[in-house]
Design brief:
By secondary structure, the protein is an alpha/beta fold. It has 15 helices and 13 strands. The structure holds 4'-deoxy-4'-aminopyridoxal-5'-phosphate (PMP).
């Protein structure tokens, strides 16, 4: 018999498992609102035009080789990525005190940042929001950090528990790491206002807490790359240190290319150089060096002003379609007179709406209406279309009635 005979069947991933269940359902009316991937109004995955153009340029380049990248990835991509998140005019970039490495999308960048901190930073506790993206606690625990939660979401208002957040960060040990969603908080769609960000910044700096930004939705939330990076830029503008993990999965639609970056903003270029040298020691035994194709696409787009502008237009188009789905779903529930206050559908930001539906209601909607979503009541607005909104509204109406 097999040497693995005693291995237990592992449960499906709570998020990716939704798609597994969806794929098994033969119903023609089924809708997948589980996975965080953009779909067109026709329900189809989208490859951006600008990505196709960049790939064409890369294919036509006769010097396109398949040699290994350096451990830190494509240098040009790293520079452009730092510029994208911190701003072209960022003093930290000008002063050469940002260490940037290419990562395996957002997940890999978070993991490398987490492991670097576990090896070299004095306070090995990271505070993450309650709730947060389900992968965060696992990524940071396996990085070697101790994971604690700070209050974030208030189910009563379906908004930010700002008081609880400040209280929990106030009582964190000095130097503790704090994971912050740069924009479009997943799964709640609830972001602090700029005034609240400023208060968070003051509190964190006064206590010496270390910000670790997760930026998975830059430009995808509001349609503006600059607006969605404001939180991060506030923390860099004060001259303090921070980490930022970037993903190009959503904003360039490069999901499966696994392209992202980790930047560590330091106080001096001397420190940044040493930090980079240690990041290489984290990466080398983990996956040696990152893949070349996705980073080449991103660099091609970011360095060419024509392609860059075209990207911002396509990005805004995706963001606007999601925002219009919020309006359509809200209107459809209003029209049905569905009990409850649904204004949070309009207020929440980014790819997801945290509906407030409980796991029983979610199970009911899946069973009776073939609507697939995570059991916490999160729906991906990007998976909706004008055609499927009425069906979803019927399901929600039946679930809460
Ligand atoms: N952080 C958050 C908050 C996310 O929602 C996601 C995507 N689901 C990621 C990070 C990372 O995704 P990826 O590794 O595909 O870039």
């Amino acid at each position: 018999s097999s040497v693995f005979v005693n291995i237990l069947q592992a449960p499906e991933d709570p998020i990716l498992g939704v798609t597994v269940a969806y794929n098994k359902d033969p119903s023609p009316v089924k809708v997948n609102l589980g996975v965080g991937a953009y779909r067109t109004e026709e329900g189809k995955p989208l490859v951006l035009n600008v990505v196709r153009k960049a790939e064409q340029l890369l294919v036509n380049n006769p010097s396109g080789v398949k040699e290994y990248l350096p451990i830190t990835g494509l240098a040009e991509f790293n520079k452009l990525s730092a510029k994208l998140i911190f701003g072209a005019e960022s003093p930290a970039i000008r002063e050469n005190r940002v260490a940037t490495v290419q990562g395996l999308s957002g997940t890999g960048s978070l993991r490398v940042g987490g492991e670097f901190l576990a090896r070299h930073y004095f306070e090995r506790t990271i505070y993450i929001p309650q709730p947060t993206w389900g992968n965060h606690p696992k990524i940071f625990t396996l990085s070697g950090l101790a994971v604690k939660y700070y209050r974030y979401y208030d189910p009563a208002t379906r908004g930010l528990n700002f008081h609880g957040l400040l209280e929990d960060l106030s009582s964190a040990p000095p130097g503790a790491i704090v994971l912050l969603h740069a924009c479009a908080h997943n799964p709640t769609g609830v972001d602090p206002t700029l005034e609240q960000w400023e208060q968070i910044r003051q509190l964190m700096r006064s206590k010496g807490l270390l910000p670790f930004f997760d930026s998975a939705y830059q430009g995808f939330a509001s349609g503006s790359l600059d607006a969605d990076a404001q939180s991060v830029r506030m923390f860099v503008a004060d001259g303090g240190e921070c980490l930022a993990a970037q993903s190009y999965a959503k904003n360039m639609g490069l999901y499966g290319e696994r392209v992202g970056a980790l930047s560590i903003v330091c106080k001096s270029s001397d420190v940044a150089g040493r930090v980079e040298s240690q990041l290489k020691l984290v990466i080398r035994p983990m996956y040696s060096n990152p893949p070349i194709h996705g980073a080449s696409i991103v660099a091609t787009i970011l360095k060419n002003s024509e392609l860059y502008n075209e990207w911002t237009v396509e990005l805004k188009m995706m963001a606007d379609r999601i925002i219009s789905m919020r309006r359509q779903l809200f209107d459809a529930l209003s029209k049905r007179g569905t009990p409850g206050d649904w204004s949070h559908i309009l207020k929440q930001i980014g790819m997801f709406t945290f509906t407030g539906l409980n796991s029983d209601q979610v199970a009911f909607m899946t069973k009776e209406f073939h609507i697939y979503m995570t059991s916490d009541g999160r729906i991906s607005m990007a998976g909706l279309s004008s055609r499927t909104v009425p069906h979803l509204a019927d399901a929600i109406h039946a679930a809460v009635a």
